[in-house]
Design goal:
single chain; alpha/beta; eight-stranded mixed β-sheet; six-stranded mixed β-sheet; 10 helices; elongated; transmembrane; transmembrane helix; membrane
């Protein structure tokens, strides 16, 4: 019960915390660095290299905001040794701290705190696969972010966690909202009840965005979603004007839940994603920019044939977000303005992939989706059994040690009795002076 109260308190902070407001500069600009797919937790040397990259990019760009656009941590990389700790955390009624995910989180956010730069995060498909749930990850963000984190857990009634927006105010002391950034959770696997393919923005989330956007003042807006919506694939394959590279197929969901239509209707004219490490292209479709970030982290695969880095987006007050200046800051410090794609462009695809991974091919997507849902429970049961085994061995070892100690004590007492009997039978002669 106390653990649940602690979680609710942290989630409240994630909704109503006291983070600083975002504001356009006196020159009417706001610079955003998108760091995507950091994939901490796979290897210490990879994590150290990613930290160095962030420490190099931040002073070079001096952004007003950093967006962590999903897969901050490779949840699948949690060591088996941490499963026992996972059970302890689940049984702990007082704290959410000390988790393996938290250890990775503190590493990856350290450069942001050192630079004193505000940041906001969304969840990727792998962020909820370790020892914290998706909502607990957002609570961790709020609990450790001090005044720098703008992240919010969002309404608990919606699918996913971390559905929220951040308003950007006009320069000076103005209270005028001049731009808006949406942060949305695209989940893990399976879309809107379907088992196959990647996850998506739930229809309830899309409807929530529609309702909120209708009530809010209309301003230039953009959105961050980890898993790209189907229009990323459609735009690239249709030959729409594009810059950058495409090194793999677009890992989008099979179902279109309507976010692109809502984005067009309410002026969300730029959508930025991650997820596909070998892609960093930007393409425009019906007045909406659809763009990948550059793979930032040294964990995980990719990027293909380019350096790791981060996408930089410079918003100008009053400017359509489809026209915002954008470039890539690479790990060697160079600034790259992406060039138009040359035809024939690679990796055209007729739609979004329905199968990804051996499990889906062997057992089918529905069975694998169920198995993935069971995984956390199975790991917890396995960890509990391991804990019981360790406890049993400890008890047995203690009993054996006690038995040996008792035997030793009895042995010593037996010798003392024999020595006493011998002394009584043969008393020592009196000492002579």
């Amino acid at each position: 019960m106390r653990r649940q109260r602690a979680l609710r308190a942290l989630l409240w902070l994630a909704v109503a915390g006291g983070a600083q407001a975002l504001r356009f500069s006196s020159k009417g600009s706001l610079k955003v660095v998108q760091a995507t797919d950091l994939h901490f937790g796979e290897a210490a040397e990879a994590d150290a290299a990613t930290v160095k990259l962030l420490r190099d990019v931040l002073p070079a760009e001096q952004p007003d905001l950093v967006v962590l656009s999903g897969d901050q941590v490779s949840g699948y990389a949690i060591p088996a040794a941490n499963l026992v700790e996972r059970v302890r955390l689940r049984l702990d009624t007082t704290s959410l701290s000390g988790s393996w995910y938290e250890q990775q989180w503190r590493q990856l956010t350290a450069p942001l705190h050192e630079a004193g730069v505000p940041y906001a995060s969304i969840l990727g498909n792998h962020d909820g696969e370790a020892d914290l749930s998706r909502r607990e990850v957002m609570a961790l963000d709020a609990a450790t972010g001090s005044s720098l984190s703008l992240s919010r857990a969002g309404p608990a009634s919606l699918s996913g966690a971390g559905n929220y927006w951040v308003d950007v105010l006009a320069p000076g002391n103005s209270t005028q909202v001049a731009a808006r950034l949406w942060f949305l959770d695209s989940g893990n696997r399976g879309c809107n009840g379907g088992a196959a393919g990647w996850s998506c923005l739930g229809r309830d989330v899309v409807e929530w965005v529609r309702q909120q956007a209708a009530l809010l003042p209309r301003v230039p807006s953009l959105a961050f979603v980890h898993i790209p919506i189907p229009q990323f694939s459609e735009a690239w394959s249709s030959g729409a004007p594009a810059n950058g590279t495409k090194g793999e197929e677009t890992g989008c969901p099979l179902a279109d839940t309507g976010f692109f239509a809502v984005a067009k209707e309410f002026g969300i004219h730029a959508i930025y994603s991650g997820h596909d490490h070998d892609n960093d292209f930007a393409v425009e479709l019906e007045g909406v920019r659809l763009a990948y970030g550059r793979k930032t982290g040294f964990g995980g695969y990719g990027p293909f044939n380019v350096q790791r880095g981060a996408r930089v987006i410079e918003l100008r007050m009053g400017e359509d977000t489809a026209q915002s200046a954008t470039w890539i800051r690479q790990q060697d410090g160079t600034r790259v303005v992406q060039q138009p794609v040359q035809e024939p462009r690679p990796h055209r695809q007729a739609g979004c992939p329905s199968i990804e991974g051996r499990c889906d091919k062997l057992l089918g997507p529905k069975a694998c989706l169920t198995l993935r849902g069971w995984r956390n429970g199975a790991e917890a049961v396995g960890a509990l059994l391991a804990s019981l085994a360790v406890l049993s061995l400890t008890v047995i070892a203690g009993l054996v040690a006690s038995r040996h100690a008792l035997q030793h004590l009895r042995h010593r007492r037996g010798w003392r009795k024999l020595e006493g009997a011998a002394a009584a039978k043969h008393p020592a002669p009196d000492s002579q002076v």
